[in-house]
Amino acid sequence: MPVAKKVTWVTRDQAMALLDARARRVLKMSGDEFVAKWKAGHFKNMDSGDCPGVIGVALLASASEKPRGRKKQKRRKR
Amino acid sequence: MAGKSKSDAKDDFCGFFKESLSCITDAYLHPIQISDNRFLLTYEPLPALFCAEQRTLSITQLFTVCQDKARGGYKVRTLQYDYSLNGPDENGVWDEIVSYHWHPEESAVREPHLHVACVPRIHFPTSRVSVERFIRMLIDYYDIQPILADAVWKEILERNGRAFDAMATWK
Fold first, then answer.
1. How do residues B103-156 score in pLDDT, each as one tens digit?
2. Would A72 be classed as within a structural domain?
3. Fewer CB atoms inside 10 A, N or C side of chain B?
């Protein structure tokens, strides 16, 4: 059984650099360009048959999404 | 692949996952925290594999951590995966030779499936595939050379494959 070691998690900024490298190699576009098109639905329903490697880039692009959560709202003074 | 805390569960899962992949590559697998409870493991750049032909490995695993209702504590729950073996086609263009996918958030095909380069548009339905079975297939049928001694890699893949079977809530 592997010894559970404390893992150092890559930050969102570092992940975006990985996405940029992957998108440039696979799709010949920047990570930012991929994310914009991905959010616009350009790659929806695209798979390996249409574009090899696109799924790996799309999964990595999920790192570009801002953490979801409720915004803190200021309390109104009574 | 379970832990008393969320942190233990995800670190433990990473340990198993990395150990299984260490049978065929010593490349660094990046652990990425996407949000409070979404994590991703991936290679970048893609590692070259030991093989008579040019081959690279794509692995991307998106997961979360949830309560383990059966055993107590916490466990990892896979959200999406992409396991692919890549190589140049007859024109020298890099292609996915064989890839196992499950990406319900990314396409209309929400079930796990297989792509084979010679019939790329077909999504062959599969059960959920563990990374251990994918690695074993690469070794057995795609001539990928393990980088660990036979007794070691076989034991790792069998042990971690059993752990996957024991923890998986669906296949």
1. 998 878 899 999 999 898 899 999 999 999 999 999 999 999 999 999 999 999
2. no
3. C
Is A38 a member of any domain?
A: yes
Nearest to A42 by CA among A53, A30, A34: A34
The neighbour count for residue B81, using CB atoms within 10 Å, is 23
Indicate the helix (H) or strand (E) that contains B94.
strand B94-102
Cα Rg of chain B (Å, integer): 16
Residue B87 has what DSSP assignment?
A: E
Residue-range definition of the domain harbouring residue A54: 12-64
Domain tally for chain A? 1
Interface of A with B (CB under 8 A): 1-12, 14-15, 18, 21-22, 25, 43-50, 52-53, 55-56, 58-60, 62-63, 65, 67-69
Token output for A41? 């639905």
Q: Which residue has the higher pLDDT, A6 or A29?
A: A29
Domain ranges of chain B: 2-167
A70, pLDDT greater than 70: no
> Contact A12/B34, CB-based, under 8 Å?
yes
Residue A1 lies in a domain: no
Q: What residue type is B152 in one-letter code?
A: V
pTM of the model: 0.90
**DSSP string spanning B35-63?**
ETTEEEEE-SSPPBPSSSS--EEEEEEEE
Cα(B65)–Cα(B53) distance, integer angstroms: 38
C-alpha B94/C-alpha A51 separation (Å) is: 11
